[in-house]
């Protein structure tokens, strides 16, 4: 049996329990939690007193809200290698085992007991050593996982090597648990691509700056430089001091397999309307959609959009995250735009704009503002020291995107 808890404000609430009977998992809310009227997953796990059978797919036998606590990509790689070192047969490790292993170190506000997570003390971290170890582990060269890397990197999602940390000025410590006063919670990403190397983090930082110029809500970022190596870091939006915030990915919310590109922005906009009742959140998503298309971020799958629940149970769109240059799926967006993956007709943008209460002039203005933000790529990439060949390749992709829609907005003298 697994006991599930939610940290909200200064409280730790008992959410309910997960039970396994034969090969089937079940969940039941606690009566205490039902009285709070906090719906942690409104679409697929609504509040009810009955025992609920957990779905077999798409999260291997658990609800999406609990699957959001588990790592994917990099974090799962670390978890599996660590368990193998403990002589655990990975083939016999269930999703419930993994929840217990995550215990109290999950992203977001949920935790699981009995807590089998690795107990840690607060240690100073050596970024150069962590980066070297992460690269070796990621590319299959490292058998023994540095303990600090396992503890600090075991719960984040996404494919890139990364660690959760606490930062106070020049001081960096492991950040999977509560932090000392004056420390803030951050995620530091390491390099995954042998091609781009150090440029990978620089490109993501450049995109963060352009996103803000495009009026898209994006967390605080910084580049940490150690021994002439640059590490992109982003402030966590699931933490406010040591307060944990309940975050639910779109994939977990609607039970979508984020590895399958079968979701559409029109569905995302409707989902946002149902959940947040906020036209401002819908308009943020619309802006992000335009940026993704024009800025060649084609990794816009359902795990890369999330929502945050406050202590009263109200939902809002999270800040944007994991947005950078990538060219994949044969040039198709992971999330289709009213059925189109690329070469989206202009009338589709006007149609989706209407859902967000944007008129024709608004849509043209957003295109223009996005193009203006992207026009800073050349100066930002130069300032950050991004390799000129890579910068020119990305500029070429921007030019291709612009040429597809050059009749749509007023260019306002934008120079490419």
Describe this structure as you would to a colleague:
There is one protein chain. The chain has a 5-stranded antiparallel sheet. Strands 7-6-8-10-9 form a 5-stranded antiparallel sheet. The chain has helices at 31-34, 64-67, 74-85, 95-102, 127-138, 147-153, 199-213, 250-254, 265-276, 279-294, 346-355, 360-374, 377-384, 388-404, and strands at residues 2-8, 11-21, 24-29, 52-53, 110-113, 162-168, 171-174, 184-189, 221-226, 229-235, 239-240, 243-244, 246-249, 306-309, 315-317. The chain has 3 domains: 2-113, no CATH class; 127-239, no CATH class; 244-404, Phosphatidylinositol 3-kinase Catalytic Subunit, Chain A, Domain 5. The protein contains 14 helices and 15 strands.
Keywords:
five-stranded antiparallel beta sheet; disordered C terminus; 416 residues; 15 strands
Shape: globular
Low-confidence stretches: 411-416
String of helices and strands? EEEHEHHHEHHEEEHEEEEEHHHEEHHHH
CATH topology grouping of the largest domain? Phosphatidylinositol 3-kinase Catalytic Subunit, Chain A, Domain 5
User: Which structural category do the helix and sheet elements fall into?
Assistant: alpha+beta
Strand composition percent: 15-25%
CA-CA gap between termini: 59 Å
Strand line-up across the major sheet: 4-3-2-1-5
Q: Roughly how much helix do the residues carry, as a percent range?
A: 25-40%
**How confident overall, as mean pLDDT?**
89
CATH structural class of the largest domain:
Mainly Alpha
């Amino acid at each position: 049996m697994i006991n599930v808890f939610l940290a909200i404000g200064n409280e730790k609430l008992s959410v309910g329990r997960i039970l396994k009977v034969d090969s089937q998992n079940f969940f039941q809310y606690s009566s205490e939690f039902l009285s709070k009227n906090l719906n942690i997953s409104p679409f697929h796990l609504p509040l009810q007193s009955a025992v609920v059978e957990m779905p077999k797919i798409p999260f291997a036998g658990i609800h999406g809200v609990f699957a959001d606590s588990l790592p994917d990509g990099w974090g799962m790689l670390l978890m599996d290698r660590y368990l193998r070192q403990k002589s655990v047969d990975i083939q016999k490790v269930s999703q419930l085992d993994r929840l217990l292993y995550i215990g109290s170190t999950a992203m977001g506000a949920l935790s699981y007991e009995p807590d089998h997570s690795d107990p840690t003390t607060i240690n100073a971290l050596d970024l150069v050593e962590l980066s070297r170890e992460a690269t070796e582990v990621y590319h299959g060269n490292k058998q023994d996982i540095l303990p600090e890397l396992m503890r600090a990197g075991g719960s984040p999602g996404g494919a890139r090597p990364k660690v959760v940390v606490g930062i106070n000025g020049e001081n960096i410590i492991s950040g999977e648990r509560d932090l000392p006063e004056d420390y803030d919670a951050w995620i530091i990403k390491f390099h995954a691509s042998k091609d781009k190397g150090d440029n990978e983090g620089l490109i993501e930082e450049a995109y963060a700056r352009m996103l803000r110029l495009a009026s898209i809500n994006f967390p605080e970022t910084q580049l940490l430089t150690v021994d002439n190596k640059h590490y992109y870091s982003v402030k966590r939006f699931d933490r406010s001091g040591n307060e944990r915030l309940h975050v639910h990915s779109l994939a977990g919310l609607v039970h979508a397999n984020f590895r399958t590109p079968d979701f559409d922005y029109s569905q995302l906009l409707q989902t946002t309307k149902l959940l947040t009742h906020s036209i401002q959140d819908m308009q943020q998503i619309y802006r992000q959609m335009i940026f993704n298309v024009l800025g060649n971020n084609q990794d816009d799958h359902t795990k890369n959009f999330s929502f945050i629940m406050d202590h009263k149970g109200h939902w809002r769109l999270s800040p944007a995250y994991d947005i950078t240059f990538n060219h994949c799926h044969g040039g198709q967006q992971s999330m289709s735009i009213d059925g189109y993956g690329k070469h989206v007709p202009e009338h589709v943008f006007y149609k989706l704009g209407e859902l967000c209460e944007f008129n024709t002039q608004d849509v043209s203005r957003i295109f223009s503002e996005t193009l203006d933000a992207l026009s800073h790529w050349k100066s930002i990439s130069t300032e950050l020291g991004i390799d000129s060949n890579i910068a020119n390749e990305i500029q070429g992709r921007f030019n291709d995107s612009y040429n597809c829609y050059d009749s749509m907005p007023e260019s306002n003298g934008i120079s490419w």
